[in-house]
């Protein structure tokens, strides 16, 4: 698959470990309620070097409508089937030491030390598989004290029936730096496995905003890990939007490793048809005076299902810390379903912590209020669902995408009504 010697050696080491890996089953708590029993690894094959194209080959300039929807940007990486095919960065930022390049071509000590630093602490069978077939990925590095005002956009596109791709995004934010990163994942109506990893290394006093949007076709499986290490007095805002895929699973993990670290995790998801959207979260407080807040909101209709399982872990050193965890779900039709399992593990004795979850249909009083004032039933449902999601949409780091995402929610509602007519 090419690339520097250290990356080849890393792949080989992971491939050798695959022989001893036990593939997960739904009997394991972390895979409870999932569709992992339907997964057949032999159904997919990694793409060959010839299919991926040469390392460093730039064959896809621009970013098309996806890039345009994101608005103004400081830089962009286009990734096709896990291989970087285009990279651009504002020259002014490059002069300040900002780096935006392909993992497979950044052959230096910084990336060797950073790659896997977060993900290796939370390994499972899919992260080992990912490491064995890692073709490349987006590397974003912001030096200490540098502020990147416009977002950096990473566009991931995958296609090919019964094939697998392994995208990777690695963000390293130096001390007191600031950056916003958008990862956007998509595929056509193709039978594809996406096994992705995102690592966010947030230095002391740094501020990082990260948004992931998943809009895969209806036959794609996406299994991903997003893990962050947050330094002293640093702040991380992560947001996830999940709308596509046959089965899409995201592990969103934040480790508050430095005193005064803060983490804010948001997500909005909407499943229809026979989709399953599966979220497993971790708020891991390992230092004192840390703060985390999580809000995940989802809706399901038709025969779709969602799963949320979250853990707030306050370790013994995490005195004077605060953590909140909230998950709310709308079940819009009979046949759809949502599971919500919040968990707390508290080892410190001087903390403030809370969690809440809710699963249910649209509130009858809200519907009655609107209909009694002349709003048609279909319009009333649309307004209630959009209102349910709006507080999350309003807090996304890229407001330029809010209209597009609201339209996608409306399209899902209209799709059901069209099928019923």
Can you walk me through this structure?
There is one protein chain. By secondary structure, the protein is of the alpha/beta class. It has one domain (5-362). The chain contains 9 helices and 21 strands. It has helices at residues 5-18, 49-52, 64-70, 91-95, 109-114, 125-132, 364-371, 377-393, 402-420, and strands at residues 45-46, 75-80, 83-89, 99-102, 138-142, 152-157, 163-165, 168-173, 178-186, 192-202, 207-215, 221-230, 235-242, 247-256, 262-271, 276-285, 291-300, 305-314, 322-331, 337-346, 352-360. Strands 1, 4, 5, 7, 8, 10, 12, 14, 16, 18 and 20 form an 11-stranded mixed sheet that branches. A 10-stranded mixed sheet has the order 3-2-6-9-11-13-15-17-19-21. α1 packs across α6 (125-132) and α8 runs antiparallel to α9. It is globular. The model has no long low-confidence stretch (mean pLDDT 93).
Fold topology:
Blueprint: H1 5-18, E1 45-46, H2 49-52, H3 64-70, E2 75-80, E3 83-89, H4 91-95, E4 99-102, H5 109-114, H6 125-132, E5 138-142, E6 152-157, E7 163-165, E8 168-173, E9 178-186, E10 192-202, E11 207-215, E12 221-230, E13 235-242, E14 247-256, E15 262-271, E16 276-285, E17 291-300, E18 305-314, E19 322-331, E20 337-346, E21 352-360, H7 364-371, H8 377-393, H9 402-420
Parallel strand pairs: 1-7, 2-6, 5-8, 6-9, 7-10, 8-10, 9-11, 10-12, 11-13, 12-14, 13-15, 14-16, 15-17, 16-18, 17-19, 18-20, 19-21
Antiparallel strand pairs: 2-3, 4-5
């Amino acid at each position: 698959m090419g690339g520097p010697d250290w990356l080849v050696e890393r792949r080989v080491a992971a491939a050798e470990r695959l022989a001893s890996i036990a593939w997960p089953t739904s009997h394991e708590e972390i895979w409870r309620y999932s569709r992992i029993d339907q997964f057949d690894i032999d159904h997919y094959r990694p793409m060959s070097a010839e299919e991926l194209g040469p390392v460093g080959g730039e064959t896809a300039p621009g970013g098309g409508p996806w890039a345009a929807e994101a608005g103004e940007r400081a830089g962009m990486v286009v990734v096709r089937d896990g291989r970087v095919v285009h990279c651009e960065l504002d020259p002014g930022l490059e002069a300040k030491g900002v780096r935006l390049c392909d993992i497979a071509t950044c052959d230096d000590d910084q990336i060797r030390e950073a790659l896997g630093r977060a993900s290796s602490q939370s390994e499972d069978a899919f992260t080992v598989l990912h490491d064995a077939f890692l073709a490349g990925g987006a590397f974003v590095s912001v030096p200490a004290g540098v502020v990147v005002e416009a977002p950096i956009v990473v566009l991931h596109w995958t296609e090919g029936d019964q094939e697998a791709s392994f995208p990777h995004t690695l963000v390293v934010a130096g001390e007191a730096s600031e950056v916003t990163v958008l990862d956007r994942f998509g595929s056509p109506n193709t039978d594809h496995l996406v096994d992705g990893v995102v690592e966010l290394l947030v230095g002391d006093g740094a501020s990082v905003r990260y948004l992931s949007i998943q809009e895969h076709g209806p036959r794609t499986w996406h299994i991903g890990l997003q893990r962050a290490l947050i330094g002293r007095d640093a702040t991380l805002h992560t947001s996830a939007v999940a709308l596509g895929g046959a089965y899409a699973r995201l592990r969103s993990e934040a480790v508050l490793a430095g005193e005064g670290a803060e983490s804010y995790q948001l997500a909005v998801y909407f499943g229809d048809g026979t989709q399953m959207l599966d979220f497993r979260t971790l708020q891991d407080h390992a230092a004192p005076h840390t703060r985390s807040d999580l809000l995940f909101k989802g809706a399901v209709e038709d025969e779709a299902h969602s799963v949320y399982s979250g853990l707030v872990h306050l370790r013994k050193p995490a005195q004077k810390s605060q953590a909140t965890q909230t998950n709310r779900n709308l079940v819009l039709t009979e046949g759809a379903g949502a599971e919500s399992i919040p968990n707390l593990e508290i080892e410190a004795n001087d903390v403030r912590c809370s969690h809440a979850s809710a699963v249910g249909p649209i509130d009858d009083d809200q519907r009655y209020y609107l209909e009694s004032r002349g709003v048609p039933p279909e319009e009333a449902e649309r307004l209630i669902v959009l209102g349910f999601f709006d507080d999350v949409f309003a807090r996304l780091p890229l407001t330029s995408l809010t209209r597009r995402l609201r339209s996608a929610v409306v399209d899902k509602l209209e799709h059901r009504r069209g099928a019923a007519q």
